[in-house]
């Protein structure tokens, strides 16, 4: 019998990837499933970025790269942080990793000691809790709801802090709720942290460009008193349609960046060379070059909300960014639909898969048991058909 480690046995399987696997299985059986479960843009990587990768292959970028990334890429990241976020990082504060996911994993491994608590405003991205637990940390969930636009209030933050609190982690725009913290809201959280100078903040900004407001994007590190205790995480997967290229990065206090570099040196030896060269081009070009994708997500966001408003039992929030909606579907709990009793969000998500042939993700995976997540990284025709099917299945 295989004797696996407790570490991996105690880990949850990524719910989004599990749903994707189930979708593939059902499709292989010939079922016409519409997939609204994956957090992946349905666009191709733009040609100007692909050309840069092809050039890098011809230029023989085939050797190991510096562990923390090519200097030219780190310079492009510094320029991007200045241009888009008014953040002023230096070369030793930047580390390039194999996706934002590895960047987050590195941060957990270099900062968390067993028993350290990490505050996670719920709903949170599916992998945070397990990344924290793998490092021996304890996720401390702070429940939010539509009433606060799925955002943690300063009072909730204050109440969640204990002598063991090491960090708070959040994404803005948020996966799965699509909510954005405004500058004022971040300042109010930072004001709480003023009284707790040893707590770090991990600000996951991977959906930064997918923002439908006029107000732009706010970063915790923009506040001078927070710069030296914030790890800003970003990457190219979402706004540049580059999920498979696997490039993410951090801007962080130098000691933390150095520790991530040390860890990465023993684990991956650095991110893929060709992808790094392509990302230099992606970041050096102005974000306006990918705006056509953001505009399309905006149209789809409006379409999804209009259609869902017409489905009984769905209570919807208006997400301001990313490409997800996160409706509260608890009105169905305790009801029997087509012979299936719905006790929780997982039952409901599985019901939709079986009876509407639409793949979604249960809110349980994101620490919110009352909601499900629908991704609108799908064509307008697919979205329209999916919600028509959902309405028919629950009516
Ligand atoms: N952070 C959030 C909030 C995400 O939604 C994702 C991907 O779904 C990631 C990080 C990971 O991104 P990457 O593809 O760069 O590893």
From TrEMBL:
So which domain of life are we looking at?
Bacteria
| Cofactors, names only | pyridoxal 5'-phosphate
Keywords of the record, alphabetical order, are: Aminotransferase, Pyridoxal phosphate, Transferase
One family from Pfam that matches here is Aminotran_1_2
Known InterPro entries for this protein? Aminotransferase_I/II_large, AspAT/PAT-like, NHTrfase_class1_PyrdxlP-BS, PyrdxlP-dep_Trfase, PyrdxlP-dep_Trfase_major, PyrdxlP-dep_Trfase_small
> In Gene Ontology terms, what is one molecular function of this protein?
transaminase activity
Q: What is its EC number?
A: 2.6.1.-
| Domain (Aminotransferase class I/classII large) ranges | 31-390
Stretch forming the signal peptide:
none
Q: Which family does it belong to?
A: Belongs to the class-I pyridoxal-phosphate-dependent aminotransferase family.
Quote the PANTHER family the UniProt record gives.
Answer: ASPARTATE AMINOTRANSFERASE
Q: This chain belongs to which protein, by name? A: Aminotransferase
Whose protein is this, by species? Answer: Bizionia sediminis
